[in-house]
Amino acid sequence: MGSSKQQPRRGNTRQRIQDVALELFSEQGYEKTSLREIAERLEVTKAALYYHFKTKEDILVSLFEDLTRPMDELIAWGAEQPHSLETKQEVLRRYSDALSGAAPLFRFMQENQATVRELSVGDAFKKRMIALFDILKEPDAPLTDQVRCVSALFTMHAGMFALQDVEGDPEEKRKAVLEVAMDLVAQAHGGA
Amino acid sequence: MGSSKQQPRRGNTRQRIQDVALELFSEQGYEKTSLREIAERLEVTKAALYYHFKTKEDILVSLFEDLTRPMDELIAWGAEQPHSLETKQEVLRRYSDALSGAAPLFRFMQENQATVRELSVGDAFKKRMIALFDILKEPDAPLTDQVRCVSALFTMHAGMFALQDVEGDPEEKRKAVLEVAMDLVAQAHGGA
Amino acid sequence: MGSSKQQPRRGNTRQRIQDVALELFSEQGYEKTSLREIAERLEVTKAALYYHFKTKEDILVSLFEDLTRPMDELIAWGAEQPHSLETKQEVLRRYSDALSGAAPLFRFMQENQATVRELSVGDAFKKRMIALFDILKEPDAPLTDQVRCVSALFTMHAGMFALQDVEGDPEEKRKAVLEVAMDLVAQAHGGA
Amino acid sequence: MGSSKQQPRRGNTRQRIQDVALELFSEQGYEKTSLREIAERLEVTKAALYYHFKTKEDILVSLFEDLTRPMDELIAWGAEQPHSLETKQEVLRRYSDALSGAAPLFRFMQENQATVRELSVGDAFKKRMIALFDILKEPDAPLTDQVRCVSALFTMHAGMFALQDVEGDPEEKRKAVLEVAMDLVAQAHGGA
DNA sequence: TATGAATGAGGTTTCATTCAT
DNA sequence: CATGAATGAAACCTCATTCAT
């Protein structure tokens, strides 16, 4: 407390870097966000960033690892359940929750696909998508129903951001998005 | 004619720049594609690009303008039709055609949203999306149906790329995507 | 003519970069010479260096290629001659001439072996040494005579610099160095 | 003793730093070896190095001082002896022994002359060379014989490394090198 | 004896852009 | 219609070093 100009910088710097980085990455994109910018916001030198992370990409990787753990667990759980509609719905419900806990990261992923594709997190992300897709779709579903499942996924990822201009409270939007996704998956499940 | 060793290279350089640029932009992203790279592929100097285009962004703008004209016309037409289901379906059908004629550009738009948002084409793109959305949705549609319309749009844009790993012939995929989009819009129309 | 501050910079920049680089590399070493330093001496920006050379190492490579051509030819010639003492002496004589035409480069090579070993020119240099060694030594020479040949080579490379503190005219020093080298090789030739 | 998981790590850290540093310096060169690298190999932090040595250069200086003491003594002894051939030969013999006890350091000195020249050890090394040279050569020896003495020195320093590719057992190589050096000095002594 | 956290200076490289020819 | 030469800004990253604990 008090007005010491230079507080002793406790052990939270790593976390603060992640916070600022995620904010900037998701606002401006990965390439357009320079380490200088991140450092300046934190009133730290660039070299300090390199004390905590080996490379720029490493910052992103760390964010991804920290924020997508719940999804990993969810997918692992889902993959072991029976392929029933109930399972699928439960997965969607929980996925929706997880998403809103890591919204900025997913906005980032959505809007920086070209960049992310070349990065190691791109692979991880793609694998997750495929795993989810395999949970939602029936083994020999016709093309149309496969599209429905993909569409459900996209709707959940992009829906929130696309609805930013639409008036209404965020929680209601989330429910609406979830409902449409559930619907699509239900149709695909029935149509098999 | 005469004894030119080089390829004919008529007044088509501008076009060739656009072709290569679109290919690279959509493959690697806008920021990761340098003018040097474009120039090298064309076996031309960077300075030559500046004879044909004022800036890097200008290349992108020109691509956008040239390739989205059909959509502009479609939207203008659609906005004047009655808000019937038939109109909406007709718009979706024609939009699907237009999309497959400019697939790389749309892939680019989809995968570089963060970049594009700051550029002038970002605005134009967003306006188009909103215009389309206004054609598809009923004026006072409930949130869920609005999501369905947004979802239909996203499905069309992203569907093709998302289905790259799924086996099947492209034209059939396109039809499947269109069918799901039509379905969503029909539900939204009926549910109003 | 006259005192224009900024002469039009003719097509000699590449050459001037090489000159300055060689001077600095040989004075201070490769790692301790920064591109900033080279650029400043030439009153040019760092980026200009990159117009003419792809990397820092490339500058060195170009120097090596340009300055060691005569040696390559000499070695190629020597390899085809009979293994007589006359051949060996002729090679030494001509090598001594070639060396004094590229003295700064060889001083650099001598004094930056650790650095150069990791660089592509290191390999080229080593190969040349081995080729020369093979010309000078008899196929089954005893170890001592092999050492004499190596020693002759080293004497020629390092001799000039090591004698900097000794008083005397450079041309005479060169002759003395050559004489000792010739002697060593003659002993080795006779001793086989 | 006790249940320490780590290696004993007594008060020998200073020594271990020197060992690793010498290994890396001689393998990669002084500039290319960073303190981070040394610290990592020792599983210690960079700051720990600064507890034992004031600067990076200090590590090198300490190595030099510790490893060249025998030579200092040898040179001091030699300077007081009569300038006879026997003295010279004795000096060479003992120098050869001393060299093989500190081979990596001398390899380092040989291969990093450019770097070392600016450092304090450079001076010390040069002074030693001159002192040795003064022992080996006759006061008014003709240029050629001076070259022979320099050459003898170079042969001993560089010979071992240059012969790495030649087959044969190290101890025999050392003897061959010594023999050639003795020969050169004998010629110089006789020729005066 | 050592570490954790940070700094300041500087390194090489890349980029979009300009302009005289 | 195009090139050759260059620039200024900025990028990512590494290094030796410091200091409170």
Automatic annotation (TrEMBL), chains A, B, C, D:
The answer to whether the entry has keyword Zinc is no
**Name this polypeptide is given:** TetR family transcriptional regulator
What PANTHER family does its record include?
ACREF/ENVCD OPERON REPRESSOR-RELATED, ACREF_ENVCD OPERON REPRESSOR-RELATED
Output the PROSITE patterns linked to this UniProt entry.
Answer: HTH_TETR_1 (PS01081), HTH_TETR_2 (PS50977)
Task: Summarize which parts of the chain are annotated to bind DNA, as ranges.
Answer: 34-53
Q: Where does the record place the HTH tetR-type domain?
A: 11-71
Q: Which UniProt keywords apply?
A: DNA-binding
Q: Which Pfam families match?
A: TetR_N (PF00440)
GO molecular function, a single term: DNA binding
- List the source organism: Streptomyces minutiscleroticus
